[in-house]
Design a protein that fits this description.
Elements lengths: L1 H25 L2 E3 L5 E4 L3 E5 L9 E9 L3 E7 L7 H5 L6 E11 L8 E6 L2 E6 L2 E10 L3 E9 L5 E12 L9 E6 L12
Length: 195
């Protein structure tokens, strides 16, 4: 009887250890850069200072956008490590996307101006005083398509930024997965130099 209990304890311990060690050993995160563009409008890379919703400075893919115009970019997703669980259970890989999307206007735009966006199967529309945060957004393993259009008076122009876009093979789950809308940092972010 003691042998059976010992075997069960070892089995349960092994499963728990596997669940903890596998993500630590095989989790991987890679940035999406302009070099991953496979079709559509080519962005340039800019530096982004930290803000109320982003606690560190980073990089962004940037597009010049004016009212009535749209951008479409298709990015090839970088290859990530396969986890042991994918290999053992012959499951296909799962990739998840993290990042932010915002619009920095050149001058104040009318309050009715809106940015309509789509990233893979998520879409939305927000006032320019807001930004979208992507967290653990499930995406394909081959390519990701970003579409954005600026709606407003013709005088509204500025920079669309996809900030710190990354894919990972580890889902963290929890509250806020997918796409969430936040009020953007009210202070102007002036650093848009090309890198």
């Amino acid at each position: 009887m003691a042998l059976v209990v010992c075997a069960i304890v070892m089995l349960v311990g092994g499963i728990i250890a596997f669940g903890v060690v596998d993500p630590m050993v095989h989790s991987e995160k890679k940035a999406i850069t302009s070099t991953r563009l496979s079709a559509g409008v080519t962005p340039w890379q800019v530096s982004v200072p930290k803000s109320g919703n982003r606690h560190h400075a980073g990089k962004a893919l940037a597009y010049r956008l004016s009212a009535g115009n749209a951008v479409v970019s298709i990015f090839t997703v970088p290859h990530l490590k396969r986890t042991w669980s994918e290999r053992i259970f012959h499951a296909g890989p799962e990739y998840f996307f993290d990042g932010h999307l915002d619009f920095q206007s050149d001058m104040a735009c009318a309050s009715e101006a809106r940015l309509t966006w789509r990233l893979h199967d998520k879409r939305g529309r927000f006032p320019l005083s807001h930004e979208v945060r992507f967290y653990d957004l499930s995406v394909p393993t081959d390519s990701i398509t970003l579409t954005a259009q600026l709606d407003g008076p013709t005088s509204c122009t500025g920079i669309l930024r996809l900030i710190d876009p990354k894919v990972t093979n580890e889902s963290r789950g929890g509250i806020g997965t997918g796409a969430s809308l936040y009020t953007a940092n009210p202070l102007p972010e002036v650093e848009t130099t090309r890198k």
